[in-house]
Amino acid sequence: MQATASHRGQFSSRLGFIIAAAGCAVGVGNIWSFPTQTAQNGGAAFVLVYLCFSFILAYPTLVAELTIGRYSQSNSVTAMTQLDSRGWGRKLGWVTSIMGLVTLTLIYSFYSIVGGWFVGFSLAPIFEISGFHEVANWLTDFNFHSTVLATVIFMALTTLIVTGGVKNGIERWCNRLMPALFIILSVLIVFALTRPGGMEGLKVYLIPDFSKLFNQQLLISALGQSFFSMSLGVGCMMVYGSYLNKKANLPLTAFQVAVVDSSVAFLAGMLIIPCMYAAMQQGIEIYSTDGQLHSADTLVFNVLPTLFNQLGILGQLVAMAFFILLVIAALTSSISLIEPTVACLVEKVSFRRHRASWCISVFSACLSIVIIYHIETLLGLAVKVATQYLQPLLCFMIAIYGSWVMRQNRLLKELSQGFPEIQKSLFWKIWPWYIRTICPGLILILFLSNL
C-alpha cells in the first residue's frame, strides 16, 4: 500500500525542488574535492572523464532514487520496505535503509567539523580587520575548543533551517543560498583569472592531455567523484523525491539537477586551479619534486589564505568571500544529511519535526566531539568507512532496488505521471536495462577497487 502524502510537506514548485536537490548534491566535494582531484589526476583529462561519468552513471541512478522516493511518498525506511512484498525483500530493504541513516549520521558528524572550520575561517578576516588578531588566530589554528565551537555553530545553522520544514525551511533557504553561491563563485573566478599565473592554470584545466584519459587511477577517481558528489545511495535524494509533485517529469528534473551539480564542480575548478597556479607564481610550493600535490586535504586552509594575505585588506575580504562560499556549499548539503532521519522520526516514531531535528544534531554533535578529541586518527577513519565502504554498498543496493525489485510496470507507471510519452522515448528504450546491468556493474567495480 502506497503511503499517503496528504500530511507531508512538498516543494512548492519544480524549480524549488531542482534548487534544493542541487543544493543537496552541491557540497564541499564539488568546491574543493573535485578541484583537488583534478590537480592530482591530469587536469583537464580528469574533468572530461568526470563529466562523462556524471551522466552515464550518476544521472541514471539519480532517476532511480527519485522514482523510488516519489512512488513511496514516504521516508526512506518505508520506501525501501514496501517495494517488495516478500519477507526477505522487506528485511533487506529495512537493513539497507537503516544502514543509510547510520551512514548519514556518521557523514553529518565529520562533515560538520569541516563545515565548522569553514565558519571559523570566514569569521577570522572580520576579527583580523578589526584588530583582534589573537581571536582570528584562535579561530584558524585547528585547536580543540575553537573546532568544537565552530562545529556546534554549523550544526545549529543546519538544524534551524531543517526545523522550518520542506517549503519554509529547506526550499526557502536553498533558494537564497544557491544563487548566492553562484554569484560569489563567479566573482572569485574573475579575481583568480586576473592574478599572475591564473591564465596558465586555466589552460591546464581546459586543455586535456588525451594520453592520460585511460589512466586507471584517473578513471576510478572520476567514477567515485561523479557518483558521490550527487549524494546518491544514502536516502537523501529518495526523501527529496518523496516531496516532489507527481506532475514533475523525473528524467528531465534529474537531468537538470545533474547539470547544476556538474556546473558548480566545473566552476569551482575554474576558481581553484588558477588560484593554485597564482600561488605558485608567488613562490608557494604546491607540488613536490615528483609531481605529487602537497597536503591535498588542508591545501584550502594553508595555500589560498597565504595568497589572499598578500593583497592586504582586499585579500582579507576575498578570503572571507571564499570561505563564506564554502559555508554555503556545506550548508546546502548538511541540510540533506539530516532530513532523511528527521523524516523517519517524524513519520515512524511520531516525533515533532523541531524535536527530531535537534535530537539528531545533539547526538551527532556528541559524536563530532569524540572525533575532534582524537582527530588525527578518527576523522580519516570516519571518512574512509563512510565513503569508501558503506556508501558504495548502499549505492549498489539502490541501483538493484530501483531496477530489479521495483518492477518495470511500476517504474513505467510512476515515470509516466510527469512524462506521458515516456514509453515511446529514447530514454525508456535505454534506461531500464542500463540501470539493471551497467550501473550496478560500474558501482561494483568502484567498490572492489576501494578494497
From TrEMBL:
Record organism: Endozoicomonas numazuensis
Name under which the protein is recorded: Transporter
InterPro entries: Na/ntran_symport, SNS_sf, YocR/YhdH-like
Domain of life (superkingdom): Bacteria
Transmembrane segments: 12-32, 44-71, 92-124, 144-166, 178-198, 218-240, 252-279, 313-338, 358-383, 389-406, 426-448
GO terms under cellular component: membrane
NCBIfam families xrefs: Na_transp
Subcellular location: Membrane
Keywords of the record: Membrane, Transmembrane, Transmembrane helix, Transport
Pfam families associated with the record: SNF
